[in-house]
Design goal:
This protein is mainly α. Helix content is 46%, strand content 4%. It contains 4 helices and 2 strands. The protein has a two-stranded parallel ribbon. Helix 1 runs parallel beside helix 2 (23-29), helix 1 runs antiparallel to helix 3 (40-51) and helix 3 (40-51) packs antiparallel against helix 4 (53-66).
């Protein structure tokens, strides 16, 4: 399993290996299978290598939140562009005279 995640830095790699060895294995033993392609851990590893740790962790957490009953399923690739934070900005300004 170490070779599978060799392209990312040691701290995120340890998190992924720990997830695969504990929570993922426990869920798999209970009959819960991943509903997406690529799997959540592979998605997180690719997001971390493409977009860095913080953005990759945010994308990976969002993917885990979509893996719930009634959530999405099927092919869900990592976005090519780095997702930005969305802020509401005023489009026009009004001044009182």
């Amino acid at each position: 399993m170490m070779k599978k995640y060799a392209h990312i830095s040691p701290a995120p790699r340890a998190l992924l290996i720990g997830y695969k060895a504990t929570l993922s294995a426990a869920l798999y033993a209970c009959g819960v299978r991943c509903r997406h392609e690529p799997t959540c851990s592979e998605y997180a590893a690719e997001a971390w290598s493409r977009h860095g740790f913080l953005t990759g962790a945010r994308l990976g957490a969002g993917r885990l939140l979509r893996c719930r009953p009634g959530g999405t399923q099927g092919y869900d690739p990592v976005p090519d562009e780095k997702p930005g934070w969305r802020f509401i900005t005023p489009t026009t300004t009004t001044t009182r005279t």
